[in-house]
Amino acid sequence: MTIAEHIAAVAGGASVRERAEAALDRVGDDPHRAFLSLDRDWILADAEQLDARLAAGESLPLAGAPIAIKDNLCQRGTRTTCGSRLLEDWVAPYDATVVERLRAAGALLFGKTNLDEFAMGSSTENSAFGPTSNPRDPSRVPGGSSGGSAATVAAGHVAASLGSDTGGSVRQPAAYCGVHALKPTYGRVSRRGLVAFASSLDQVGPFGATVADIAQVYDVIAGPDAGDATSADQPAPSAMEVLGAGVAGLRIGVVRSCLEQADAPVAAAVEGAAERLESAGATLVDVGVEHLDLALSAYYLIAPAEAASNLSRFDGARYGLRVEGRDLAETYRATRARFGREVIRRIVLGTYALSEGYADEAYVRASRARTAICRAFDSVFEGVDLLLLPTAPTVAFALGEKTDDPVAMYAADVFTVPASLAGLPASSSPVGEVDGLPVGAQLIGRRFEDTTLVRAMEVLSS
To answer: In this model, does residue 458 exceed pLDDT 90?
Structure first.
């Protein structure tokens, strides 16, 4: 059920509690392990409060629509584990800004979803609490790190969910699970209450069964926030208002080099998406974006460097898990040894990238590459309004296929990290299938032109 259908059902006399019970029944025993927590009593109590607000005449744009939350976003009174043993029992004392805004709009906060530990991964196999499977094929990964949020939408449990995207973590899972997702422009959506992985890259974004679901959630969560120093101090244009506007007159650059890197059936599906955009009135232009070959390497130095700094707070002394040792140093070591293998790998990589004698060769060079990529995007956007490319080079791979090959796992992000490094808005929409598995097409837009993406996403889904 889409958000619009849910709103219509409530307007027609159904209670939010009835709709919540139906959603809980759809989840059942959560066969895909999409959720890390799903408190039935809590959800039904919130549903009754929403019914009371509606009965009192309060205007609620989301009217109790169930929306799932990735478990690295703080939700007061609930565990926020980040998929890690270090925060297994940590209960958030406050709401993230995006959660506050969903509450104010009348959303029913529907459980916390599974993720790669501290959002580090491309498959949701790095969760300390077990992997999520892909509802389209349970032998496959749902993508990562927001795999639980993508899976619960793909399974039809909820119409929408929130994830976070650092290097592709809403777009790649959306592609693998066959749903829509939007990574807003960096700074467009508040990061307050999002547990930090890489602060210059992290951004909260919605998943939706339809583009209208994406637009409705985006309109609620986007906009300035005085509680986030990186929040852009400018109003966010409405995505709902551009639905139906189409793409006539837009120039869309097809990134041919990425199509050539993707598996042939994936590339063919994206070519078909390009033809749909052209048929709807867009002008297609083959383009190249300089320095894209540097993006993956630059990302996997910059993001781990920021992670090494951000995760230093999990030391057993301030909050979260504490493993007692003979002295403070041993307590630090024993506590941090509970990080999962992938998190440890990235902390070590980031510490190396920042270490004396190596920072110039690693972090500084990666930062220069990032600047070059930003300038390359600026140049190409002088001639086009949007870029079109595959979201991922392949369809969803098998569970366990890449867990012992981190380089192959990182390569799943090769088409998504460039937009993240540049802080640009980007999306993924399902545009076809290969052997029954979804293919996602990625759109990248100019900074703060998020609603132009929504216009094109709607055409792709028609």
So the answer is: yes
19-62 pLDDT per residue, tens: 999 999 999 999 999 999 999 999 999 999 999 999 999 999 99
Last residue of a domain, one of 330, 361, 392: 361
Do residue 304 and residue 199 come from a single domain? no
- Measure the CA–CA gap between 442 and 416, rounded to whole angstroms: 8
Residues 233 and 324 in one domain: no
Where in the sequence numbering do the catalytic residues fall? 70, 145, 169
Residue 303 has pLDDT above 90, yes or no: yes
Burial call 275-290: b when 16+ CB within 10 Å, e when fewer: ebbeebebebeebebe
Instruction: Indicate the number of domains in the chain.
Output: 2
Cis peptide before 145 (omega within 30 of 0): yes
Domain hosting residue 208, numbered range: 3-242
- Asked, for residue 89, whether it belongs to a domain, the answer is yes
Closest CA to 387 of 284, 238, 269: 284
Dihedral sign (CA 52, 53, 54, 56): positive
- Provide the 8-state DSSP code for 312: G
Taking the C-alpha atoms of residue 315 and residue 323, their distance in angstroms, rounded to an integer, is 9
Q: Is residue 372 in a domain?
A: no
Residue type, 376: A
Residues 29 and 163 in one domain: yes
Q: Please, what sign has the CA dihedral across residues 108, 110, 111, 112?
A: negative
DSSP codes of every residue in 69-123: EETTB--TTSB--TT-GGGTT-B-SS--HHHHHHHHTT-EEEEEE--SGGG--SS
Q: Can you tell me the distance from the alpha carbon of 15 to that of 373, in angstroms, rounded to the nearest whole number?
A: 50
- The C-alpha atoms of residue 289 and residue 253 are separated, in whole angstroms, by 10
Boundary residue ending a domain (361, 379, 413) = 361
pLDDT at 218 over 90: yes
In a domain, 455, yes or no: no
Cα 328 from Cα 348, distance rounded (Å): 21
Q: Tell me, yes or no, if the pTM score tops 0.85.
A: yes
Give pLDDT tens digits for 372-423: 999 999 999 999 999 999 999 999 999 999 999 999 999 999 999 999 999 9
Compute the average pLDDT of residues 212-224: 98
For residue 446, the model assigns a pLDDT of 98
In the predicted model, is pLDDT for residue 340 greater than 90? yes
DSSP of 343-382: HHHHHHHHHHHHSTTTTIIIIIHHHHHHHHHHHHHHHHTT
